Amino acid sequence: MIVPTRVAGLEALDEFLPLAGSAYARDRNHDLGVSRRTVSGLSPYLRHRLVTEREVVGAVLERHTLGAAEKFVQEVFWRTYWKGWLEQNPEVWRRYRRDVDRAVDAGVPAGYDEAVAGRTGIDAMDAWVRELVDTGYLHNHTRMWFASIWIFTLGLPWHLGADFFHRHLLDGDAASNTLSWRWVAGLQTAGKTYLATASNISRFTDGRFSPEGLATTARALDEEPLPPRTPVEAADVVGSPYGRVGLLLHEEDLEPESLLAERPGLVARLSAVAVSADPGGRSPQGASAAVVAFTTGARDDAATRTRDADGRPARTPTDARPAAVVEWARSEGLDTVVTPYAPVGPVQERLTSVRGALSAEGIDLVTVRRRWDGEAWPSASRGFFPFRGRIPELVRQL
Ligand SMILES: Cc1cc2nc3c(=O)[nH]c(=O)nc-3n(C[C@H](O)[C@H](O)[C@H](O)COP(=O)(O)OP(=O)(O)OC[C@H]3O[C@@H](n4cnc5c(N)ncnc54)[C@H](O)[C@@H]3O)c2cc1C
């Protein structure tokens, strides 16, 4: 079981550190089963920022040179890259949400129910569905094979596969998930698809699976052209706190200490703290029980770690709806609510409504983006390879 606390995340990081160099570069593509992990397993912690990218990369580079840990550091930056790319192309998220909503309203296509119940008759797919549902995790290579078989062998819509992942992955993330599915489908790098083959699956699963009857071709999907890119907001802090200031944490960033330490003087006195989370916002079909338990646990962990200026622990409103946030802010007599910036995705949608509801009460919402994101995101406008060239410079600033 993956424990949803910062302490457990830091322990997992510590345990993985010796493996982050050549062992990771050699073994990371192998999925040897649940009990023989070749990767860090840090994604649920990074996704909720119980542990930050900066801490992970910083600890790895204290132990290894950048040359030795290059592969691992690059993988962490894939997360940053996807987020920066989606920030600049929010239309991709809007269309994804629209298409999932429509499919759920209209009724799912033939074959969908069998696929998500693990009854396709393709042994590997059926086992991976069980692993995903039971553990809330799949290895990266397995996610690629799964998405490829879903789209090209089973002929199911990519966005419903992405929605199934998003509902069940503890690390389910609007950018990494949506854009990785698009990459497999040939939408992200136009025309370039990913085709899963039995020989590759057999080689990298140590012969555990060698599925028969897989598609032998993968024709790229197409889409309406995207609108021009939206530039990344230049300022890390949008708005200026005044009067009585409260802090509202959410499931995109649950480590306030380092966030506020980046901005000395921004909040002179923290009058109140609340932590809200709504894992069900990931999908019109809600999130799995495992995701709800992890996210709620992570929220509660952040609440116990975060106190206001008078030493009072954070409140955890019973729901994340704007009305509950307004009720908290009013009961504390706040003039300003400061919150970590939420990138494109469900939490950003929620905060847009929260901003409107607070504003109607004369309360300002101020967003604070981490320097890590502000420095890197503007470079995520094209492919990963030009972005990758900036990694040495970005890690020098750690
Ligand atoms: C179809 C598909 C869907 C995916 N959905 C998600 C998702 O919803 N959330 C998510 O965090 N990752 C997603 N990934 C990326 C990747 O599979 C996971 O981040 C990785 O498997 C997590 O395991 P780990 O922590 O052991 O990774 P490690 O290999 O130990 O990597 C360390 C960290 O780097 C980041 N990372 C590694 N690989 C990637 C990658 N390819 N893209 C983005 N970040 C990466 C993660 O934060 C990870 O914790 C998806 C990949 C595919 C192909």
Description:
With 398 residues, the protein is mainly alpha-helical. The chain has three domains: 6-85 and 376-396, Serine Threonine Protein Phosphatase 5, Tetratricopeptide repeat (Alpha Horseshoe); 96-204, DNA Cyclobutane Dipyrimidine Photolyase, subunit A, domain 3 (Orthogonal Bundle); 237-368, 3-Layer(aba) Sandwich (Rossmann fold). Helix content is 49%, strand content 6%. The chain is built from 19 helices and five strands. A five-stranded mixed β-sheet has the order 1-5-4-2-3. The longest helix is centred in the N-terminal third of the chain and has 19 residues, at 70-88. The protein starts with 5 loop residues before the first helix and ends with a helix. The model has no long low-confidence stretch (mean pLDDT 97). Flavin-adenine dinucleotide binds at residues 28, 39-43, 46-47, 75-76, 78-79, 82, 139-140, 143-144, 147, 165, 169, 171-173, 176-177, 180-181, 184.
